[in-house]
Amino acid sequence: MLYLIGLGLGDAKDITVKGLEVVRRCSRVYLEAYTSVLTVGKEALEEFYGRKLILADREEVEQEADNILKDADISDVAFLVVGDPLGATTHSDLILRATKLGIPYRVIHNASIMNAVGCCGLQLYNFGETVSIVFWTDTWRPESFFDKVKKNRQSGLHTLCLLDIKIKEQSLENLIKGRKIYDPPRYMSVNQAAQQLLEVVQNQRIRGEDPAITEETLCVGLARVGAEDQKIAAGTLQQMCTVDLGGPLHSLIITGGSLHPLEIEMLNLFSIPENSSESQSVDGLRT
To answer: Which top-level group of life is the source organism from (predicted)?
Structure first.
């Protein structure tokens, strides 16, 4: 059996009891290490699970999946994923590969950012399509995701923006020369995402388009959701450029414009202070 097991969002103890029981009896246990990360490292997981883990990077999962599936028809193999196992299409591909090989599989679900985002007080029913914001480079500055933001806004729906992470990435030079030298991990912050969004807004204005959001659009920044030091901040898109939410992982929400009274009341708990003595009410923000 191939088991795909969600680890939740916080630390080693967020795995379900069911998932932990499976991990402890499997012959091999892989830890997917590129779509997301926990607040603790591999060693902490191994200590709590009582098992050695095999790190599986993007190349291993996408190009050498047969190594993961080897002997899974005659023994139990576990594949651990931060959040929920089906939060990324890569893991659906692993299921399809297993099925073609006649290997049975089972998914053990857990919390992911897709549902834990409700911690900020915005109602999950009011979210539209999720988008990903990637790191821009000097030569690659995609804006296509913004069409989905605009569509959500037109429907009065919030947009969850998943922010880019770069783990075990190679520079173009090292890639061309075939050198197995990797850049340090990078995690996009709410600040960086907001700055890129503002540039998209400016570009659309220059082209004479209606960007659907402005510097004053109400947004919510989230950091380390599910961890003990989780942080949430509600304010304008402009404020998101400078708010300090600490270390990774970050997510950003662009609100849909029309908020339910309970959503407004909840977001006021997380309003970004204008100064040390007072905070700006969400009611007063232009959405």
So the answer is: Eukaryota
- pLDDT tens-digit readout, 213-267: 999 999 999 999 999 999 999 999 999 999 999 999 999 999 998 899 999 999 9
Residue 252: which of 192, 202, 201 has the closest Cα?
192
Which residue has 């004479």 as its token pair?
208
Following CA atoms 102, 107, 113, 115 in sequence, which dihedral angle do they give, to the nearest 10 degrees?
Answer: 120
pLDDT digits (tens, 9 = 90+) for 161-173: 999 998 766 666 6
Q: Which residues are annotated as a binding site for S-adenosyl-L-methionine?
A: 9, 84, 87, 112-113, 163, 225, 250
User: Which three-class secondary structure state does DSSP give residue 66?
Assistant: helix
CA 69 – CA 78 distance, rounded (Å): 10
pLDDT classification of 56: cutoffs 50, 70, 90? confident
Which residues in the chain belong to E strands, given as ranges? 2-6, 28-32, 54-56, 77-81, 105-108, 131-133, 159-163, 165-166, 186-187, 218-223, 231-236, 250-254
Instruction: With beta carbons less than 8 A apart as the criterion, state whether 153 and 213 touch.
Output: yes
- Is the per-residue pLDDT at 287 higher than 50? no
Q: How far apart are CA 75 and CA 255, in angstroms?
A: 47
Query: Residues forming the annotated binding site?
Result: 9, 84, 87, 112-113, 163, 225, 250
